Amino acid sequence: VTKSKPKGTTFMNTYIAFFNGRRLELQADSQYAAVLTARKELKVSKSKEGSLAVVLAAKGDEAVVHCGASL
User: Fold this and answer.
1) DSSP label at residue 29
2) For residue 63, what are the contacts with CB-CB under 8 A and spacing of at least 6?
3) Using CB atoms within 10 A as the burial measure, which of 3, 14, 22, 62 is most buried?
4) CB of 17 within 8 A of CB of 24?
5) C-alpha to C-alpha distance for 55 and 44, rounded to whole angstroms
6) Helix (H) / strand (E) containing 34
7) Would the CA dihedral through 66, 67, 68, 71 be positive or negative?
8) Separation of alpha carbons 15 and 9, rounded Å
9) What confidence tens digit (pLDDT) does each residue in 6-33 have?
10) H or E stretch at 33
11) Which secondary structure element, helix H or strand E, spans residue 59, and what is its range?
12) Coil, helix or strand for 15?
């Protein structure tokens, strides 16, 4: 079930970024925005961008559960 959002507003989702053994939890409205924020916060160079992993942790205020077999 998808929640409808009022026009002109966005829901912030929680993402977790992993890079070189470091973990960062952040809020963003899209995964692309989360990747850009994680690159900046974790100081990931363009050549190391492939080592950065960003996964959805919560959509709005609902937790997202990932199956380990699919990762």
Assistant:
1) S
2) 57
3) 14
4) yes
5) 16
6) helix 31-41
7) negative
8) 19
9) 555 667 999 999 999 999 999 999 999 9
10) helix 31-41
11) strand 53-59
12) strand
